[in-house]
Amino acid sequence: MLKKIFLVAIAFFTLNGCDSVYRFLLFPPEKVEYEIVPDLDMIVSIGDTSYQIGKDSMTIVYNRGSFKVEIKYMSDYQLNNYEFPEESKGGIYSTNPYTYGDWVDPELGYTPNRFTVFKVSIYNYTAPKINFDPENAILLSDRGDRFIAYGLDAKTSKFHSLEEYYRARKGSSGIDEEVFEARMGIARRTMLTYGRPLYKGDSREGLIVFDPLSEGVKKIKVTLKNFIIGYDENNVPSDFIDINFYFKRVPVIRAPKETTKVIASAEGGVDFKSLKEKEIKIFQVRYGGDGEDIIEAGLKNLAEFLNKKEGLKISIEAGKPESKSISNADLVVIGGGVVKPQFSPIAIDNFVACVKNGGIILIDDLNHSRSSQFNMGARDLLDKIKSRLEGSYIEKIFQTHPIYSIWAKIKELPLGADDIVEVKEFEREEKYTFLEGLFWQRRLVVVFSSKGYMRILSKFDNPTIDNTAQLQLFSNILLYALSSRQVAMK
Fold first, then answer.
1. pLDDT tens-digit readout, 343-378
2. Is the whole model's pTM more than 0.70, yes or no?
3. 33: which residues sit within 8 A by CB, 6+ positions away?
4. I need a surface site. Which of 89, 127, 346, 405 has the fewest CB within 10 A?
């Protein structure tokens, strides 16, 4: 009876939409993408025939005969995929200055808007001189937003600047400095700036940047305030007008990219029926380092765990990094702690082939120390693999990633050897509270652990320890690789 009442309540709140709390609990919100398009009704109501809609239906044209101004909203989709496709890759290190690129906010579960961007084009046909300072542009919304456009450089900006924005968010590492300079370089080439007057026959175009819009905004007005249409005898601006452009915000549905199919399917679950019909291959890399018996024992426990839980048939092969078997493995495991690993060009070729064939490489530091010889050597390997995969990037693996949910639901990172094994106080380092990953073509291809998980999987330090959570995590990593490969082969 209670169940029936509950279902009726769900239907009531869903159909009537009168309680946002219930809707949030029962149907978690999804990211809605918006376009900002000309508001034809508002434009007509002005009664000024100087306003027209461009042939693309997305541009508002203000044509005074002697000069013309065009303005068009630039969506994140447009900026990422058509204006700056390469610069929009790399997660937190993407160099597109106007969007977050392909980075996904781990708390929101989607990519928010960094700015609100418009492209403005100015054409002077017959006027003696015209000009416009883009920092005089203002954006107003029906929700009360009042944004002033960003300037470019901190020293010359009237209010706020893109340089200040990114300096406040810049780290101190070398790559942070490179990303900052790359972003500013693009901004200097593409932002609309206040320069010399536009004489007869001149034109100028560029991007105007505002803060992101509030949720729920439906209508906006962009004003090019104090647009200069005349100069006095001393060459000082003397005649001004305000040009108002009216837009409305509408939802848009796009077809998903082909490159997102692997991730989307992997998040949806695992096709165990087909997996039970195949042999799942794990390869343990033996490069002459320490702890190889620990890794072997841990992998055997992992295979037994998945066989017992899901009836999967897993084979484990161990061999040198030059073995051709690596390229066809579903999971390649590299571990150690004291010895610094060094890999030949043939080994690098095998690791890259494994990734391109849909497999995952798992690196685990048994010494759980970022200053260990293994850790340093393994990071060299990670960089070499990265250099071979165009567009790949290294980033923290956030809790929203499928390796935490594709099979077992893991709410927090399981304890590692660094959390359990006692070390001398002077040897203690700050613990890692996350895993790192190498991402390529929207897929996780290398998992880097500095937590010594194999010591727990093998029960090396404590035979009675409960290692279920750690086995579940490693199972998820393997199943993520298998699911991604299933989709790729369809």
1. 999 999 999 999 999 999 999 999 887 778 899 999
2. no
3. 75, 76, 77, 251, 252, 253, 254
4. 346
